[in-house]
Design a protein that fits this description.
By secondary structure, this protein is mainly alpha-helical. It has one domain. Helix 1 crosses helix 2.
Amino acid sequence: KEFADLTILAAGKVIDRSLDKKAHRQIIDKVLEEAPTLKKG
């Protein structure tokens, strides 16, 4: 559930910007940085 919430959050950030791959990657990296609990698996 937490991962799904983060995915939705990331998708919302992507929508706010252009949907190019570089921006998408930056957003994913940012979300992962903001969610250290996700890295624990």
